[in-house]
Amino acid sequence: MLLSVLLLNSGRPIGVTSLIERMWGSNQPKSAVANLRTYMYEVRRLLRQTGDEGGRVKSHPSGYKLKVGAQPGHGRPLA
Question: What is the mean pLDDT of residues 23-29?
Answer without folding.
Answer: 95
